[in-house]
């Protein structure tokens, strides 16, 4: 979704657009701002997600299902930074140099990685729901978690990546500038695609919210029961309850940060789409801000993990972090 609104607020034929409106000898202020911010996000996120994955690997056989899903979330964030961010920046600031096949292969990755992140957060929420709200049911095993992760990647590419690749074409506009651009058979098809993409990005948040509300209520109820029984603070049951509480608190913060970074861009993109707003300098600055928030989420998660989880800080000690 992040690539669809880089060029214009509508999908008119690119050949009719003057190249000077997007590319010039001197970069506009919003482009320089975008370049600086994206560079910072890339450096922080690349290092942070790499050490999170390393920390999970250091857990060895003590890895939990939550650890597996968190490692997958870090992997999708790392992929966003290594592939989607540079591709989007190149499309915005320069002519696409790699040909139409590369256009069809690399541009859909942004939507694929976003879908992987959303589905991984949903899987984490369902795992916590099963563990806390229905504790007597069988827990997800690490093997099942790994199968689920594989399914998430395959499903995301089949449902989001492949359909997107069919509508992308490499178009040469004035002065030899080439852009990777979505083409639609009809205006209705374009609107349906973008609305469905926005729904795919936001609707799972309602399921995640429901799961965590039930989890918090269940933990609160158990805590009241133990307080009324005057259970010793150092008992194994209370210690496990406290560990669950801290984990759920951290996961809720991760979901809140994801929503805070995603929703402004989705809202802004839909406003651009349905109001026909022109790409003025103020609109460009707003778009850069929303895009920066979207990509910043890939750098925020490692900071949350290392700030709120003692286990991850311990796991990172062998690398001197």
From TrEMBL:
Residues 48-305 form the G-protein coupled receptors family 1 profile domain. CDD domains: 7tm_classA_rhodopsin-like (cd00637). Keywords: G-protein coupled receptor, Membrane, Receptor, Transducer, Transmembrane, Transmembrane helix. InterPro entries: GPCR_Rhodpsn, GPCR_Rhodpsn_7TM. The chain crosses the membrane at residues 31-57, 69-90, 105-126, 147-171, 191-213, 250-272, 284-307. One of its GO terms (cellular component) is plasma membrane. It comes from the Eukaryota. It is found in: Membrane. It is a multi-pass membrane protein. GO terms for molecular function: G protein-coupled receptor activity. Belongs to the G-protein coupled receptor 1 family. This is G-protein coupled receptors family 1 profile domain-containing protein. It comes from Pocillopora damicornis (Cauliflower coral).
């Amino acid at each position: 979704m992040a690539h669809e609104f880089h060029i214009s607020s509508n999908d008119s034929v690119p050949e009719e657009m003057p190249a000077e409106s997007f590319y010039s000898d001197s970069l506009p202020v919003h482009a320089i701002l975008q370049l600086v911010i994206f560079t910072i996000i890339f450096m922080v996120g690349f290092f942070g997600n790499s050490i999170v994955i390393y920390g999970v690997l250091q857990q060895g056989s003590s890895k939990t299902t939550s650890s597996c899903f968190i490692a997958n979330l870090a992997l999708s964030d790392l992929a966003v930074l290594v592939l989607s961010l540079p591709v989007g920046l190149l499309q915005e600031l320069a002519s696409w140099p790699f040909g139409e096949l590369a256009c069809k292969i690399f541009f859909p990755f942004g939507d694929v990685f976003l879908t992987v992140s959303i589905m991984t957060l949903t899987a984490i929420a369902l795992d916590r729901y099963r563990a806390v709200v229905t504790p007597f049911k069988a827990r997800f095993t690490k093997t099942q978690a790994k199968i689920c992760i594989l399914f998430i990647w395959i499903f995301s590419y089949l449902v989001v990546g492949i359909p997107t690749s069919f509508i992308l074409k490499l178009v040469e506009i004035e002065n030899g500038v080439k852009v990777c651009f979505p083409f639609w058979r009809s205006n209705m098809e374009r609107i349906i695609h973008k609305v469905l993409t926005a729904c795919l990005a936001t609707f799972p948040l309602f399921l995640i919210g429901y799961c965590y509300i039930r989890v918090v209520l269940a933990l609160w109820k158990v805590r009241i029961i133990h307080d009324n029984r005057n259970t010793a603070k150092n008992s194994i049951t209370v210690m496990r309850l406290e560990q669950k509480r801290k984990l759920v608190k951290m996961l809720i913060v991760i979901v809140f940060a994801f929503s805070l970074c995603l929703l402004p861009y989705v809202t802004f993109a839909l406003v651009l789409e349905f109001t026909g707003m022109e790409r003025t300098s103020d609109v460009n600055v707003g778009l850069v801000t929303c895009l920066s928030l979207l990509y910043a989420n890939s750098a925020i998660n490692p900071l949350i993990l290392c700030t709120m989880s003692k286990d991850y800080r311990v796991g990172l000690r062998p690398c001197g972090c």
